[in-house]
Structures are given as structure tokens and as C-alpha cells.
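Appendix B. One record, verbatim.
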Amino acid sequence: MRYDCRTLAERDQGIAAAVEAVKSGQLVVLPTGTMYGVGANAFDADAVAGLRRLKGHGRDVASPVMVGSQQTLDGLVLSLPQAARELVEAFWPGELSIIVEHAPSLSWDIGDTDGTFLVRQPLHPVALELLRETGPMVVVGAALAGQTPPTTAEQAQEQLGSAVSVYLEAGPHGEPVPSTIVDCAEDPPLLLRPGTLTFETLRGVVPELSESS
């Protein structure tokens, strides 16, 4: 089912349907502010494995996680490095992804990540509403290998079809924008991929930040 979240009635229906789908181990397509993504319950190993199969990813490919709040992130780590906390407070929700160590007690299987994970709080009201109901989700770009990234949920549906249970349409997204990635598991933190947030902007918050060579 595809729901047009630009109308209040369908948005409410769509969010409810997507929450039910995620909690039952199914995949959903959602807007994230930088792209349309396809996501699964981060704590459902079968759903995450299905998402990897759909994308043709091996376990060595990082499974990025999205959360609905900083408080959710706090529940996924033993302790959040000070640099990570300062970056999150400055740039979340938004286009910043950070790498941090997850709590070893977490019962999830997001791939071979050596105890770390990539996480972001997206800046999109539909995504935030969904994530605050479902909890953490693994979310990847909603395009099959070799296909053009979709700019609408309708285009995503043309590629993914019945492999996805619920599509949340929020209108054209424009060209997909890669999020900025900072590895906060390193000391000092390391900028791995610049995006709309530049090295200089990030260093204004975390002066010890370094760049990858």
C-alpha cells in the first residue's frame, strides 16, 4: 500500500500501517530528508537480513541505523563520547551520521560492524513520527543496484514492488544528498565523508576533528 502523507488523513493511516508493518518484520519505504529509504526493524534479524538480500548487500556492508531522538541513541550505547554528544546536539535532526560503539548487550544483528554502528536522526517529520513509534530502524537507499535513486515513493514502488509492504509518499525529494559521516569511535573523531556539513562547520563544534587522508 502507498499512502500520501501530504494529506492528514492518509498520513495518519500510513504511519499506523507502517508501524504495524515494521513491528511485524516487514519493510517500509519512507522519506528521510536526504533520500527515500527502505527500512526494517533494527532488532528483527530476519527483517534486516531480508533488507540486505533486497539490496544485494553482504554482511560486510554497514547497515545504517536511524533513530527518532537523541534519547533513543543514548539507549543504544554504553556511553556517548563527548564529541559525539556535541555534534548530535548541534546538528540533529539533520544530515549528520555518526559512528559510535553500540552497547554489547544489544540483541541485534546489523552486520559485521566490529562493535560499532552508523546512526542518524533524519530531518523529516514523517520519518521522525514513524521512528518514534517503531524505535531504531535500519534504513538504506530505496533503489535496487544499478537503478536510479527514486525521488518519490511511487518511483520506489516501481523498483521494489511487493518486496515492501508500505510506501509513505511525501512528494518529490530532489536529488539524493549523502549525509556527512563522522567516526566518533575514533579519538580524535574523524570526518569520513563530507556532505552539506563541511569540515570547517563541524570543527566549529568539535575543534579536535580530523579529516581522513
